[in-house]
Amino acid sequence: MIRKLSEIRIAINLKHQQPFPKSRRRLLSYYCYIPRRIKINPTGEIAGGLSRFVTSLIDFSFVRSICASAYSSRGGHAYDPVSLFLLQLFQWLEKFPDLKTFLSVVRDEEKGKHYRLYAGISSSHVPCEADFTHLKDRLGENLYTEIAQVLVEIVRLLGLLSFSILSTDGTLFPSYSHYKGCTYFCEECHSIVFKGLIDNVRRRILYKLQEPTRVALGRDIKVRVDCPSTRFPEDIQKPKVELLTLSLKIADPEQPNPLNKIFGVEEELKAQDLDVIIRRINFHSINIDQIDSFFFRCRSAELTTKPQAPFRYRSSYRSKKKSQKPR
């Protein structure tokens, strides 16, 4: 980015070469571009804030050339328009609530020294709110727009803007606001076959029992498969469908758990005084011709076939009907 900005800076300066009418001796401040080192902290924050980051990368000298037509060689002392423009930019970048609060920080000997340094302002000549009002009246909307267009051009040359138009429709229509179903549901979602379920659960439980740190009572053990729908676009990864959710709990010696025997982990769980329980299941049938072949129903498909009540617009007030009694 720094290498690209070096070339962009030369191109921008060659395009804006109108000399500023007031000499440097008659300016109360003077901005000069100084490329500073950019350091990013381990937390991801930029050392010195966004003000240092922006002024280290972009040369704002072109602002003086654009504003030259609004100034005269005659008259008293004035602030460099680049300095005032940068202070307004710093206020926006650092998210100060208003100009008055920001200028009080700029006047502070310690807190405002980096703002004064980046804008080319000395501690003895800090502008007031009236100076910014005079600048706005002097430049007008057209010159401010021209400055903004140069900044947009710099961002475009960096490749951060493509000018591709993204349009959105913000019109509100009544809809199923509580709808949580699947957009791509189909007939296959009502009956998903899973072969080897018992063996799959058995291997997962044995894996957890091998290491005591893996055993977490009450934590979900989810059995999932890829969504069987064929309506997904090729560039979209299919989601996982949750078929069965299990968990481990402390065994109750008075009530033996039949699931331990069904999943083939009765001896292993008994050695550690644990039971396996079913938290959620969408099972609906078994294929008796094939061992360990179960059929499940996708919950998203169920929600799609049974949508919630439609969303209704609400007015800002409630109408109260007076009870009419017969005379």
Structural class, judged by helices and strands? alpha+beta
**Uncertain runs:** 303-324
Total discrete domains: 2
User: Strand tally, please?
Assistant: 6
Largest sheet: 3 strands, antiparallel
The strands making up the biggest β-sheet line up spatially as: 1-6-5
Strand content: 5-15%
| Order of secondary-structure elements | HHHHHHHEHEEHHEEEH
- Please give the radius of gyration in angstroms: 35 Å
Strand and helix map with partners:
Layout: H1 2-15, H2 49-57, H3 62-66, H4 81-93, H5 99-107, H6 113-119, H7 129-157, E1 192-195, H8 197-210, E2 221-226, E3 240-250, H9 258-262, H10 266-271, E4 274-281, E5 283-286, E6 293-296, H11 299-305
Antiparallel strand pairs: 1-6, 2-3, 3-4, 5-6
Describe the overall structure:
This protein has 11 helices and 6 strands. The longest helix is centred in the middle third of the chain and has 29 residues, at 129-157. A hairpin with a 6-residue loop joins strand 5 and strand 6 (293-296). The protein starts with a helix and ends in a 22-residue tail after the last helix. It has a 3-stranded antiparallel sheet with strand order 1-6-5, with no helix packed on it. It has 327 residues and is of the alpha+beta class. Helices cover 36% and strands 11% of the residues. It folds into 2 domains: 2-157, no CATH class; 187-305, no CATH class.
